[in-house]
Specification:
Largest sheet: 6 strands, mixed
CATH architecture: Beta Barrel
Shape: elongated
Number of domains: 1
Low-confidence stretches: 14-27
Strand content: 25-35%
Number of strands: 10
Distance between the termini: 77 Å
CATH class: Mainly Beta
Radius of gyration: 21 Å
Structural class: alpha+beta
Helix content: 25-40%
Number of helices: 5
């Protein structure tokens, strides 16, 4: 059975559209991790709302030794994201024109994960959302809570 020219074009067009939409869905995101609480997805700079992580140059002291806690916070985020798709829910823009958002990997909040890991803090000045996660890390002395540290906002003010 042969298709008419018009039907053949229609079948080819539909097939091309299906391939195109499938390709876009499969295509990976261009994700760059700037630091523990800032990422870029396809060029859009996204700052995690409601949390604050140590600065990249920030050090903590663990058992008398210097610990690069800012680098560790970034690495924890890199490891958590891996090759997974990141979904962000925008909450507006900050004063630096970054998108403020809560982002998720496999339905898990990256902000909650970082705070519970002890390498991010509930940024109470802007949100109360992650206080329970912070309490959990503090009580269990997880991450930075097992070290001497400056809160990131204090570190920025002093440096």
């Amino acid at each position: 059975m042969y298709l008419s020219k018009r039907k053949a074009i229609l079948v080819i067009s539909v097939s091309a559209l299906v391939f195109f939409f499938t390709y876009i869905d499969i295509k990976s995101q261009d994700i760059k991790i700037t630091d523990g609480d800032t990422i870029k997805i396809n060029g859009e700079k996204i700052r995690f709302s409601g949390i604050d992580t140590p600065e990249l140059k920030q050090k903590c002291i663990k058992e008398g030794e210097s610990d690069p806690c800012g680098i560790t916070a970034k690495q924890i985020l890199i490891d958590k994201i891996g090759k997974n798709k990141v979904i962000c829910i925008s909450e507006g823009k900050d004063q630096y024109k970054r998108t403020l958002a809560e982002c998720f990997v496999n339905d898990e909040s990256l902000s909650s994960y970082l705070v519970r890991s002890g390498y991010a803090f509930a940024y109470r000045r802007y949100s109360k959302k992650f206080i329970r996660d912070e309490d959990y890390a503090r009580i269990n002395k997880i991450g930075m809570w097992s070290m001497k540290f400056e809160y990131p906002w204090v570190y920025r003010r002093n440096n």
